[in-house]
Amino acid sequence: MTDHDDAEMFARLRTLWRDVDPVPANLIDRMVAAVAADGLNREYALLTLVEGEFGAVRGEADALTLQFSDGTTSILLHVTTTASGRRRIDGWVDTATAEIVLTQGERARNTAPAETGRFVFDEVPPGLTRVRLTTGEGDDTRTLSTPQFEL
């Protein structure tokens, strides 16, 4: 076999696999997101190791804005502290969403966003939190789950 024969055989194999078992349309985006999220726990651990009096760097406002995306769906969270010391989460999602679930350990709260994509979670206790949203209907449902973040 010559190099030309090998190249022709590999080209036919690529064509066969592209027809028989094509790469899912969103696989590349999901893999990029998975690789990007892989080091978040390590980065969070490093950030929590920093000690000292750095609170003034963040300013006086006790608010946090977070954005998460998987390439097709984005979720924006604005977190503020209430008078009771708990948190209020105002959120917006840019796609039709069936359900949004906020989890903290074993506790879960769910809501459905308005037609504008807006949703609210009131009186959320501080702690590690994750938000999961389900989009689509029937067999075409997808789930976007944020990494854990500290409230």
Describe the secondary structure blueprint for this structure.
Blueprint: H1 3-20, H2 27-38, H3 40-49, E1 63-69, E2 74-81, E3 87-93, E4 97-104, E5 107-111, E6 118-124, E7 128-135, E8 142-145, E9 149-150
Antiparallel strand pairs: 1-2, 2-3, 3-6, 4-5, 4-7, 7-8, 7-9
Structure report:
The chain is of the alpha+beta class and 151 residues long. Helix content is 26%, strand content 37%. The protein has helices spanning 3-20, 27-38, 40-49, and strands at 63-69, 74-81, 87-93, 97-104, 107-111, 118-124, 128-135, 142-145, 149-150. The strands form two sheets. Strands 4, 5, 7, 8 and 9 form a five-stranded antiparallel sheet that branches. Strands 1-2-3-6 form a four-stranded antiparallel sheet, with no helix packed on it.
Q: Helix segment count? A: 3
Number of strands: 9
Structural class, from helix and strand content? alpha+beta
Q: How much of the polypeptide forms β-strand, as a percent range?
A: 35-45%
Oligomeric grouping of the chains? single chain
Poorly predicted spans: 50-60
Q: Approximately how much helix is present in the residues?
A: 25-40%
The average pLDDT value, as a whole number, equals 81
Order of helices and strands: HHHEEEEEEEEE
- Our measurement of the CA-to-CA distance between the termini, rounded to an integer number of angstroms, reads 63 Å
| Integer-rounded radius of gyration | 22 Å
Largest sheet: 5 strands, antiparallel
Shape: elongated
